[in-house]
Task: structure prediction
Amino acid sequence: MTSERAAIRLQTIRSVPEYNTMNRVGSLDFSTTSSTPPLTEDGKINYEKGEFYTNPPVATCSRKQAVFIIGLILATLLTCSLIIAFVRPSHCGHVEEGLDFHEDVAVTPPPEAIATNGEPFPWNDVRLPDFIVPLRYSVVLHPNLTTLFLRGQMEVVFAVQKETNFIVFHGKDVTLTVVMVKDKNMREIMTTRTLYYPYHQQIYIELKNYLMPGNNYSLALRYEGMVRTDLEGLYISSYKSPGGVKRYLVTTHFQPTSARSAFPCWDEPNYKARFKIGVVRQRNYVALSNMPLDNTEDVSIFWGSGLVQDNFHESVPMSTYLVALVVCDYGRIHEVTKTGVTLSIYAPPHMTSQADFALKAAVKLFDYFQSFFGFSYPLPKLDLISMPDFAAGAMENWGLAVFRESALLMDNNTTSSSAKQRVVLILAHELAHQWYGNLVTMKWWDDLWLSEGFASFAEYIGVHHIFPEWAMMDQFLHSNTMPALRTDALSTSHAVSVTVSDPIEIEAIFDTISYSKGASIFYMLQRVLGEEIMRRGLMLYLERHQFGNANMDDLWQALSLGTLNSSHPVPVKDMMDTWTHQLGYPLVTLRRHGNMIHASQKHFLLVNSSLHSVNSSHKWHVPLSFTTSAAPNIESQIWMRDPLSLRASDINFEIPMNVSWIKANVNASGYYRVNYEPAIWQSLIRVLANQPTTFSPADRAQLIDDAFTLAWAGMLNVTVPLTLSQYLVNETEYLPWSTALYHLRKLDTVLSIRTARRSLHCFVRHLVTPLYSIMGWTTKVPHIQSLLQRELLEAAVYFGLSSAVNEARRLFTQWMSGQVQLPPDIRDIVYSTGIKYGGWTEWDYCWQRYKETNVPDERLNFLRALAASNDPWILQQYLDFAMERNSIRVQDIRKVVESVAQNPVGSLLVWRQLQTRWNMIEVTFGRASFTIGRLILAAVSHFHDPLDLKSVQTFFRNVNVGSGKRSLMQSLELIQANINFLNKNDRQLEQWLNRNSPRC
Ligand SMILES: [Zn+2]
Result:
């Protein structure tokens, strides 16, 4: 299927055969004005936006061009709507267990390398040739916020390493108007033709004479394009002032491959160069870029009346995806760090007071990381800016990091503990990137995990430093290791180090594996090496590769050096290769024979079907840690590898004869699961029941997580995790509770229409009641306690504990009548309960509050709560509001879809909406967007009925989901796992729950 969006992109760049006669920079008239009305986010004409600039807009473009594009969008939308209307999913009753998750998705074969003018495109490789190396860019951009027309000039000095008569570089949706190549003596080298190949987003310039190795040359371009509306590249965003006036701004998001749509460039991370950025703007706005402002000049004569150009200092060498610029009318607060770096936060003027907390935290984190990495931050300033529309949570652009509003701004009086924690974690992540990712960058996207995995690990180290009482490493397990182990149990997972080439493949690996598995194996490595050796190795790595690029082996080498003088040198590369090159992870199984323990390992798969059986050749260097009843507080460690060959293997080891229990993977710091023979499980369950604090909270959580997951995979009787869970009546810690409640809710989802569901609710109510009686709705408890309280209250309401439901409803009524202000930590639970047990009046009241508030966390609270309704009609209205995008921002559509899908009443509504609005979703997010995959996972991965599985397969059979392909395959596999689990355990579950749940 070809989208209308793709069709437009292919046409907006064209080769210009007249280059040879007009290839002089400055030969074109740039001063023509146009009265083309602006486009809104959804492509409609918006006359209000003219208020943004009071002066006449400056552009040679074209009402015709804009009208043509709009017409094309509308025509294609109409066509696709008709197609969708006639292609409905069909249903089929029976699904084989041997489903192939890998071949059920539409694949578009790559086209031949033919340029847009019909000529063969001579360079047929998605990677650029390596014999031309850009050194210095000078880029001037004029984004016109009235017409959305983008005009730019780019000049790059490049080195030639091999004789060549052509240049190939990236460009996307840009039209070159002037091309000129010069040698170092400023003599022009004539170009003979310019070709564009949209499939690889490449431009080819052929020259009359050869460029010689060892020499530098320059390429100067003028070009035109459009300010985008899809949250990629250089795009428009807006916010409303307190007076209700819509204010527009322009921002950038280039990672991974969108710099090329703002300016033609060598858009691969290994082509680091210096950038001198210029931005043309109206006088009453502010422009920001990676570096501080150098000077501002009046450019009315060249660019249009009333315009000035901000010129920024030249940058240090960096990758194109880290270049950034913003034009806005924001306010600013700032502080200076210990080493004299100015750290600022920019936000809409009426929201800068919400940035105080983030600024103070950012300065502390900055000072900490600077000392942790032992390397001075190399830029004179760091700006953090909030953005009303942003696809990701935040982006680490060097010197100008961009954040979603909810990831940076918070009102102290209305923001919950969890939202505050989210702000600090995201800050720490982006600050860690300023060194790890920006200063040293991966050579190619295959090693994206090096940057993202490490930043996802370092954010916890950073926050632990400034808030040691927050139990961050326990939370790390909940937010990283456990989610990664869930995704990585699928045959459709991928190795953290994975071969990717085109933009769609690259976008698809911004996922749980790169971030959370990457972070988890860094954590495991740190436990093996020790914190100080790890830190010294990281410092050495940064020092060796500063302002350059590196790969995994460079890092392993630096980390190994720290262990050479140790009595137990660690073969870091040998170990880590087993964790980075293989997908999945091991299931370690312990069996006891007297005082001998046999530990075996095999690849763990959630669905072990005939088509996707366990790969017996997969083995890992497992640092197997364990404790026993003989010394519960002493951790022992043994490597699961052959001591001579150093190959990963099974092992035997001795324990004292009188030991009553053994527990492996101490504190869950290893990236593996553990199964035990039945007698050992029984001994562990006895300890939990009688003396649960014998194990740390992390160990208790891990026993719960492993037991439930093994039952889901059919490797453990389902009565084991249920029996184990009975100890929760005595549990008082956050991590075991959050882990258990995740699994109990999942169980509730698959039992949604089974008789056992009622018994499950009684069982969970019985478990939560003791702690609920202690904690209740009292607020102002310590941070980690407030997180636990939220988990508990949510569960109490979800599973229908009447005292909790009644109290939440009472609070909602009081709040709605204006009698009380709700405490931040419980307000979203109260909103959800009020909506769940209310009707349209309650829903609409919250909807109006959502539209009024300018506090980011409060907006998220309402977005989640509005999905809690029990009325399908209301939920359908809500989904429609989200898709129409008038009141809900594009970045928040996923939140709405996820929240409604988690509501059993809304689950199938979401799936129907996704099918009927698929075309709109594709247009909005683009195929090369990680959002597509996340929408699919959110909408269908919890299905547990063969009919639904067939429906998903049938719908997507002829749909090209682009970078969502792996997420789709994973969703199919997860559905199959749910079906298998129910088939195997349905009756046993019901019997156990009936027997062990108190009457309620
Ligand atoms: Zn990151």
